[in-house]
Amino acid sequence: MANNEESRGLKSLFDWFANRRKSGSTSLERQEREIADGLWHKCSKCGVLAYTKDLKANQMVCVECGHHNRVDSDERIRQLIDNNTWKPLDEHLRPTDPLEFRDRKLYSDRLRETQDKIGLIDAVRTGLGQINSLPIALGVMDFRFMGGSMGSVVGERLTRMIEQATQRRYPVVIICTSGGARMQEGMLSLMQMAKISAALQRHKDARLLYIPVLTNPTTGGVTASFAMLGDIILAEPKATIGFAGRRVIEQTLREKLPENFQTAEDLLQHGFVDDIVPRTQLKNTLTQLIALHQPVLTTPHMVLWETMSLTSTAAE
């Protein structure tokens, strides 16, 4: 009799644990479902759950650890450009497949699938706008589009934007995030490095300001060209910035690289970037830099000269 009661007690105890485990898994599924629905966001660095609305209000920067989550081009434009001042440029330009490239699938199919998925034509958006009422030409790369890779359309859009800025005497800001040149376009992709760099040189010859902002990640041909040609080079905290990948370098050198290798902080220490600016301070920092580098106006001096001339004439 005692044994039967004892076995029933053990069975009920096992049932209790089983029910608890089941309810725990249910709550976990419910939590994951809520996160998937976009109500909550779990920080990939510190693991803290944050209400997505509050995280967006802080420009997708974790309030607990300061981790900068990746943001898309739409969000970047909203963060930097004044309301109702954004005028997109060259949205009609579309990528083609001149090499008829194929890896696991046709490049033309890959392009079409990516365009349908994220609603962008290519990996950069360019336009004119105002940042705290100061005019600016802005290019924003989007990592969602094939890793922000630089193809012919990316190069053409950025070049045309820079030429517009030179003509209008606007400063240029490019938000860089890229895995490098787009291999599916071969040499045509590599040519964009020289084309953009030439446009930036003409912009510089006109004594106009160019500021690249390096975000996570900025690598490959973008780093080897326009990302490092700025008058003032800014970077976001902890951003990965480099040319070749860490694993490739370690295998080539057969050495273990430091933990902070190719981080914004390491590049700042070695003089490759000028400052590290948190995203929440980026708009004000850009405003200050642009205001300080505005072209010198001749109108006040002309007015002063006219006043002096009138005064001397009256005295006579």
UniProtKB/TrEMBL annotation:
Entry superkingdom: Bacteria
Protein's GO biological process: fatty acid biosynthetic process; malonyl-CoA biosynthetic process
Transmembrane segments: none
Keywords: ATP-binding, Cytoplasm, Fatty acid biosynthesis, Fatty acid metabolism, Lipid biosynthesis, Lipid metabolism, Metal-binding, Nucleotide-binding, Transferase, Zinc, Zinc-finger
Location(s), subcellular: Cytoplasm
Pathway: Lipid metabolism; malonyl-CoA biosynthesis; malonyl-CoA from acetyl-CoA: step 1/1
Reaction equation(s) it catalyzes: N(6)-carboxybiotinyl-L-lysyl-[protein] + acetyl-CoA = N(6)-biotinyl-L-lysyl-[protein] + malonyl-CoA
A GO term from the CC aspect: acetyl-CoA carboxylase complex
EC number of this enzyme: 2.1.3.15
CoA carboxyltransferase N-terminal domain residues: 39-308
Binding site for Zn(2+): 43, 46, 62, 65
GO molecular function: acetyl-CoA carboxylase activity; ATP binding; carboxyl- or carbamoyltransferase activity; zinc ion binding
Cofactor section: Zn(2+)
EC category name: transferase
Role description: Component of the acetyl coenzyme A carboxylase (ACC) complex. Biotin carboxylase (BC) catalyzes the carboxylation of biotin on its carrier protein (BCCP) and then the CO(2) group is transferred by the transcarboxylase to acetyl-CoA to form malonyl-CoA.
HAMAP family recorded: AcetylCoA_CT_beta (MF_01395)
Family statement drawn from the similarity comment of this UniProt entry: Belongs to the AccD/PCCB family.
Subunit structure: Acetyl-CoA carboxylase is a heterohexamer composed of biotin carboxyl carrier protein (AccB), biotin carboxylase (AccC) and two subunits each of ACCase subunit alpha (AccA) and ACCase subunit beta (AccD).
Protein name: Acetyl-coenzyme A carboxylase carboxyl transferase subunit beta
